[in-house]
Amino acid sequence: MNKNNPHEIVLEIKNLFKKFENKIILNDLNIKISKGKSIGVMGPSGTGKSILLKCILGLTDYNGQILYNGKLLERKNREILYNNSGMLFQGGALFDSLNVWQNISFKIMNNSSAHSKKDSILIAKKMLNEVELGAEIFQNMPSELSGGMQKRVALARAIVNKPNILFFDEPTTGLDPLTTKAINELIINLINKKNVTSLIISHDPLSIQKICDEVIFLTDGKIEWHGNVKEMSNSKHKMLKDYLNSNK
Ligand SMILES: Nc1ncnc2c1ncn2[C@@H]1O[C@H](COP(=O)(O)OP(=O)(O)OP(=O)(O)O)[C@@H](O)[C@H]1O
Ligand SMILES: [Mg+2]
Known about the structure:
Structural class: alpha/beta
Strand order of the largest sheet: 6-7-8-3-9-10
Helix content: 25-40%
CATH superfamily of the largest domain: P-loop containing nucleotide triphosphate hydrolases
Bound molecules: adenosine-5'-triphosphate, magnesium ion
Radius of gyration: 18 Å
Shape: globular
CATH architecture of the largest domain: 3-Layer(aba) Sandwich
Number of strands: 10
């Protein structure tokens, strides 16, 4: 990467503050994500990880600046990020009342260049193949799928618009170890194959170590440690060491 080329920074967060009433949730966060890199945000429950994502996506107000490909994101131009990103929400969060293909194709059926029903089904089946699910489940309802299958469908939905940046909030929480391993591998394959930039929120150091290039350790809304994922386990940082030991 050419470090002098600011356009190589896909997402930049500058002096991000967030509070609810008088409680400070995010306290002056500064984060840069380079093109094709995967950054993990790790930290204990309630530390502001999901709120960080909500700020990036413009789902809550904040103080500070968030830039996408060098452009300052504001209320009126948020679609530049929305149209080029995919999101896997904490818990999967499929639409309960929509079947598998409707969930996957939701974004491409509801945007300016809306696809026909026939095309949307075809695209959904192709996406099912990408996430290693059989196309025959295209008409199933989310409640008929296992937790791991629901995550895969949510992943298919996240990549349907060929995003160049992907956001994951706790992609493996609530899954058994084997399914966790499979989902992690799927995420790695998807982001490597398509060279997408990604931000992965997880309280699980193992998932972060497998998927990410860099890691940010967040506690009480502040960056306590930030470094290469390979340096994480040897770090002498007391809080980080304690956190890693408590998650073994
Ligand atoms: N709408 C809200 N109003 C007030 N406080 C909120 C609101 N949403 C979140 N919070 C608070 O913000 C803090 C950070 O929440 P957040 O959901 O970002 O935590 P998290 O790090 O994602 O935790 P977890 O690992 O459990 O998902 C928590 O203390 C939470 O109670
Ligand atoms: Mg969360």
